[in-house]
What does this fold into?
Amino acid sequence: MFDLLVPVQPEISNNQPEIIMNKQEALFNYTLRLADNSLILSQRLSEWTGHGPFLEEDLALTNIALDILGQSKSLLEYAAQVEGKGRTEDDLAFLRGEREFYNTLLVEQPNGDYAKTIARQCFMDAFDYYFYSELSNSKDATLAGIAAKSVKEITYHLRHTSSWMVRFGDGTEESHTRLQNAIDELWRYTGELFEMTEADEILLKEGIAVDLNAVKVKWEKHIAEVLETAKVQAPENKYMQRGSREGKHTEYLGYILAEMQYLPRAIPNAKW
Amino acid sequence: MPTDLHTEEAIMSFLHEIPDPEIPVIDIVELGVIREVKAEGDTVEVIITPTYSGCPAMKQMEDDIRKTLKEHGYTQIKISTVYNPPWTTDWITPEAKEKLRAYGIVPPEHSTIDKGWLTGKTKALACPRCNSKNTELVSQFGSTSCKALYKCKDCLEPFDYFKCI
It folds into this structure.
C-alpha cells in the first residue's frame, strides 16, 4: 500500500510573524474536524449498505452510519453558524476540496474485508466514546449538547464493534489472521487521533475542548483489553502516520469526495 | 386566524394529533420529542429534540407539525431543535409504552438511570405475542435507529424491542 507521504514541514524561523488563531477560528476548525470525522466515516460505512456479510450486520452497519451521519450534520450546522460567512452545512460537506477536510486519516481508509471495517470502527468508536463523554462537559453549550446525544448512540456502536473484535480474533484461524492483518495495517493511523493543535490548546484554556492526552489513556486501556480478549496484538512497529490536522490526507480521501460530492457539483442546487 | 383559544395547551393538543411517522400507534408528544411550545399572537414556536441524531423521521415530523398548525390557522410557525438534555426513552409516556406493546414492539424495559443497558445486561424480555420469556437478542440494530431485533424461542416469531437510550 502506498500512502501519500506527508512532506516534512519547514521549520518556521523566529523572525517570521506567528499567525495566532482567534477563538472563533479555533472553534470553527475544531467543530469542522469533528464533523469531518463523522461525515467521512459514515460515507465509508454506507458503502457496505446492501453488501453486508449477512442481513443483521448489514442493518447494524447502516444504522451506525446513519447515527454518525446525523452527528456530522449537527456539527456541520454548528460549524457553519460559528464561521458566520453564510455557508450552509451542505456547502461545507459538498463544496470543499480534500485539502480543506480535517478528518483523521483512520476514517478514510478503505473498508477492506469485514475484519478491517470492524477494526477501524472499533478504534474510532472507542475514541469517540471517551472523547464525547468528556466533550459533554464542555463550556460550549452546543458542543456539549451534541456530545451528550452522540455518546448514547456511540455506546451501542462500541459494544457492537468490541464484541466483533473478540469474535474474529478468538474465532477461526482465518478470522484471527484477518483481524491481526487489519490491526497491523490500521495501527499507524491511531496516533494522530490524540494530536493537539493550536485550536485544541486555545479551546482547552477556555474549557471548551477536550484534553486528548486524557482521552488517550482511556482509549489505550480499552483497546488493550479488547485486543487481549481477542488474542491479537498491537504491532511492534510504532511508526505513526500523521497529516490530517493540516488537511494532508492519504490518497483515498479524494476518491471518497469524488463520489460523495459528484451530484451537487455537477448539478448545483439540485432538488429531490 | 388564531384566537385567544389558541393557548399553549391547545397547541399541544393539536400536536397530539400527529402520529410518529414510523410507529403510527403513538403520537409525537407521547414520544417525548416536543420539548416546549410558545405562542404569541399568530406566531407559534415549537421546540423539538431529536430521538437519534440521524433519525430520518425528524424531518417528516417537522413537516407534519407545520401542516397541522397551518390547518389550525397559524401562519407564522417556527421549529427549533435543541440537543440538551438529550432525548431519552424515559420520556415515552407509560400509556405510549403500552400502545407499543400492543402493536408488537416491546417498550424500553429500563429507566436509563439504571445503567444496566450500558453494559449490555438486559432483563429477559417477554415476547409481545406469546408472553414467553424464552427470548434472545438477534441484533442490537433493527429496522429503525431506535429498535433492536429479538427472537422468541417458543413461538419462533421475531420481534422488535424499543431499546433504552
